[in-house]
């Protein structure tokens, strides 16, 4: 299959990002995967899986909260693969779990730096490149159910995921002129290392109760949505943060 274009997925060494990267490769995109250098081995394994699917690929370690690193990452994608057509700003971290009155300024700043600033930087440098290319593009970010409905005990995380929705709407208004769509996904509970780390003892059981299916989602559920958002067929959808939560919450 000839290439549908070049996609960059952040936080792709595991969980939802890994699944999105593999799905986009199956869809015919060449895929660059990013994660922290501390997760390099897993990241390299994802790049190898993309290779096996017959698609051009590379892996690039960078911290999405650092502007120079995001700028250099987008430059790497274009130098190695010729363009950037789909940006998936997936990387994110959980905040400290506990009452708001116990959240420190440092904890708040770190969560916002990765989950909100990191997505902003990805949108910014991907947008600059896509505008320069002059043939449109797809920008997709990670919000959350916690970005639709405030989540007690995860104050900083909730605030960061609401920020992604606002950013997505504003960016969609600006980038629409260039035929670049900007959307986000808002997952409910998805079975990944992040969900398990949230509450290793009861997390999955509690999360299952929220859905009428009485189960949590799998990363491939999110990858299916991203696959559609990245496709030509989604051209009239922009500025949306799409809930994908097994019926746990209705907009
Ligand atoms: P995960 O923790 O399993 O994977 C996240 C990946 O991001 C990790 O590989 C991690 O190393 C990487 N990462 C963290 N900080 C980074 C940084 N500064 N720069 C680059 N990479 C970084 O999480 P996941 O469950 O796969 O979640 C993916 C996204 O979906 C996140 O934004 C998360 O907030 C969001 N989300 C997840 C769930 C869920 O239930 N799993 C629900 C709602 C939203």
Give your account of this protein's structure:
The chain is of the alpha/beta class and 251 residues long. It has one domain: Rossmann fold (3-Layer(aba) Sandwich). It has eight helices and seven strands. It has helices spanning 15-27, 40-52, 67-81, 105-133, 155-175, 193-198, 203-209, 219-230, and strands at 6-9, 30-35, 57-61, 86-89, 137-142, 180-187, 241-244. A seven-stranded parallel beta sheet has the order 3-2-1-4-5-6-7, with helices on both faces. Strand 4 (86-89), helix 4 (105-133) and strand 5 form a beta-alpha-beta unit. Helix 1 runs parallel beside helix 2 (40-52). It is globular, with a radius of gyration of 17 Å. The structure holds nicotinamide-adenine-dinucleotide. Residues 10-11, 13-17, 34-36, 39, 63-65, 90-93, 114, 118, 142, 144, 187, 189-190, 192-195 line the site of nicotinamide-adenine-dinucleotide.
Strand order of the largest sheet: 3-2-1-4-5-6-7
Helical/strand content category: alpha/beta
- Looking at the structure, the CATH topology is Rossmann fold
Helix content: 40-55%
Bound molecules: nicotinamide-adenine-dinucleotide
Q: Secondary-structure element sequence?
A: EHEHEHEHEHEHHHE
Number of domains: 1
Give the end-to-end Cα distance, rounded to a whole number of Å: 38 Å
Question: Which spans have pLDDT < 50 for at least 5 consecutive residues?
Answer: none
Question: SSE layout and pairings?
Answer:
Layout (H helix, E strand, L loop, with lengths): L5 E4 L5 H13 L2 E6 L4 H13 L4 E5 L5 H15 L4 E4 L15 H29 L3 E6 L12 H21 L4 E8 L5 H6 L4 H7 L9 H12 L10 E4 L7
Parallel strand pairs: 1-2, 1-4, 2-3, 4-5, 5-6, 6-7
The structure holds nicotinamide-adenine-dinucleotide.
The site of nicotinamide-adenine-dinucleotide has 29 residues, from helix 1, strand 2, helix 4 and helix 6.
């Amino acid at each position: 299959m000839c290439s549908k274009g070049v996609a960059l997925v952040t936080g792709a060494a595991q969980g939802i990002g890994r699944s999105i990267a593999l799905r986009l490769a199956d869809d015919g995109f060449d895929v660059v995967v990013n994660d922290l250098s501390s997760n390099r081995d897993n990241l390299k394994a994802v790049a190898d899986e993309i290779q096996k699917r017959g698609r051009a690929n590379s892996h690039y370690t960078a911290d999405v909260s650092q502007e120079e690193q995001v700028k250099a990452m987008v430059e790497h994608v274009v130098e190695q693969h010729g363009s950037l057509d789909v940006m998936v700003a997936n990387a994110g971290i959980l905040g400290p779990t506990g009452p708001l009155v116990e959240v420190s300024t440092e904890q708040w700043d770190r969560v916002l730096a990765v989950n909100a600033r990191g997505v902003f930087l990805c949108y910014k440098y991907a947008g600059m490149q896509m505008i320069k290319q002059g043939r449109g593009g797809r920008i997709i970010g990670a919000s959350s159910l916690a970005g639709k409905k405030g989540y007690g005990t995860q104050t900083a995380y909730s605030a960061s995921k609401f920020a992604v929705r606002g950013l997505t709407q504003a960016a969609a208004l600006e980038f629409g002129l260039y035929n670049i769509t900007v959307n986000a996904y808002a997952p409910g509970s998805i079975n990944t290392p992040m969900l398990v780390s949230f509450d290793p003892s009861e997390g999955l059981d509690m999360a299952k109760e929220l859905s009428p299916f009485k189960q949590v989602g799998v990363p491939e559920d999110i990858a299916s949505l991203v696959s559609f958002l990245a496709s030509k067929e989604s051209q009239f959808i922009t500025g949306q943060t799409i809930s994908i939560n097994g019926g746990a919450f209705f907009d």
